Amino acid sequence: MEIRPTNDEDFDAFVATLHAPFARFPDTPAEDGGGAWWSALEMDRGLFAVTADGQTVGTTGAYTFELTLPGDVLAPAAGVTAVGVLPSHRRQGVLSAMMRHQLTELRGRGEFLSVLLASEAVIYRRFGYGPATYTQRLTVPRHQAALTLPRARGAADAPDTGSVELLRRAECGELLEEVYDRYRRTQPGALSRPHRWWALRAGQPPISPAPRYVAVHRDADGVPDGYASYSLTEPHTLTVDETIAADDAAFTALARFLLGHDLVKQVVFKHFPPGHPLRWQLMDFRAGEITQDTDWLWVRLLDIPRALSARGYFTDGELVLDVEDAFLGERGRYLLSVRDSKAECVPTDREPDLSLDVSDLGSVYLGGTTPSTLVRAGHIRAHRPGAAGLADALFHSDRAPHCLHWF
After folding, report:
1. Residue 356 lies in a domain
2. Which entry of 124, 127, 134, 365 is annotated as an active-site residue?
3. What's the family (predicted)?
4. Domain residues for 71?
5. Could you say which of 65, 327, 334, 407 is catalytic?
6. Is 402 domain-assigned?
7. Are residues 31 and 89 in the same domain?
8. Angle subtended at Cα 19 by Cα 17 and Cα 25, rounded to the nearest 5 degrees
9. Residue 330: CB partners within 8 Å, gap ≥ 6?
10. 280-302 burial code (b ≥16 CB/10 A, e <16)
11. Burial class (CB in 10 A: 0-12, 13-18, 19+), 88
């Protein structure tokens, strides 16, 4: 079997092959209103698995993204996508061969982070990926949707003086692109949406051509600083694809608009950030039902010193990490030193504070999973008292990571 790169001439064959493992066809309409997401594929980053007799039996690809790290750091990240093996060739080492080839290729391009969305949670940990951001679905019955008014007033919770304008998706493409791009630059865990995606309408709403209403929030100066894309998905259910907001005031204003919509029985927020204060703003705390609490973005570190030095930190300290990468047959020990919010990570022979798999390092990297949780779960081994607590403090993020982009 050969793993070979793809090019633009392979596009049709690539699209046909990547659909076969899922028993779908490229011309089948997406159930969720998504567009032809594969139209944005970067064919110079794809791989084919080809048998000795020339049959194409597997695919994988990657997008060129920026990932926002804690501390408002923008880092290049490869977005792994289109991973599949024909049912006739599964469990024969094809997937492992493609993933190993891809990781080697990504390193060769100088990339130090790789991310993906996992179709099945049991697949990608063995390749060094760990779940790093999470998302939820929030359902609020319309008759219980009243919001409370804040009791304490301050700069952060001052009454919203902006406005909400209702548009149709076809009327506001450039506006959505601009607002999302400003949002993702300060939200840990967020991925860029290259202009190519918006131009091709590739992906899920509100990028796709599916008809949607869009509530746009403007600040007191009339500048757009948030939006919510929504539609009536089933009788009397208003489903919100995503809510983007520059701050809590804009989010609350958009939520108030959505929750106050007439002629619906419930409002469903498909991508609700864990720990978001909206549930506390409901007059009836029990009105908000959380379901589908699940992982979203998975992260893999390809160059540990570069990755750990890149993100921002909010406390000082030193930590020695002994990291095993079984899939690539590597093991390294690294000293992470943070002084005045600046980090340095170098190989060391000092005794480790923590021993962990590279997939667990991916899980804690953005601050969405605490190292102490993984110590308690038996994933990470702490070698001295206080090591897990120090790791929690070091890997903490100023904002909980959240990713909305689907790829």
Report:
1. yes
2. 124
3. Belongs to the acetyltransferase Eis family.
4. 2-111
5. 407
6. no
7. yes
8. 115
9. 324
10. ebbeeeebbeeeeeebbbbbbbb
11. exposed
Q: Residues of 233-248 as b/e, b for ≥16 C-beta within 10 angstroms? A: eeeeebbbbbbbbbee
Residue 5 CA to chain centroid, in angstroms? 26
Query: Is 407 designated active site?
Result: yes
Q: From CA 211, how far away is CA 214, in angstroms rounded?
A: 10
Q: How far apart are alpha carbons 240 and 214 in whole angstroms?
A: 10
Binding site listing: 83-85, 91-96, 119-120
| Best CA proximity match to 73, nearest among 189, 209, 200, 247 | 189
pLDDT value at position 149?
A: 76
What local confidence, expressed as pLDDT, does residue 151 receive? 66
Q: Which tens digits make up the pLDDT trace of 140-152?
A: 999 999 999 766 5
Query: Would residue 180 show up in a list of annotated catalytic residues for this protein?
Result: no
List pLDDT tens digits, range 204-259: 999 998 999 999 999 999 999 999 999 999 889 999 999 999 999 999 999 999 99
Question: Which residue ranges of the chain lie beneath pLDDT 70?
Answer: 28-34, 150-159
pLDDT given for residue 29 in this prediction? 61
Same domain, 220 and 285: yes
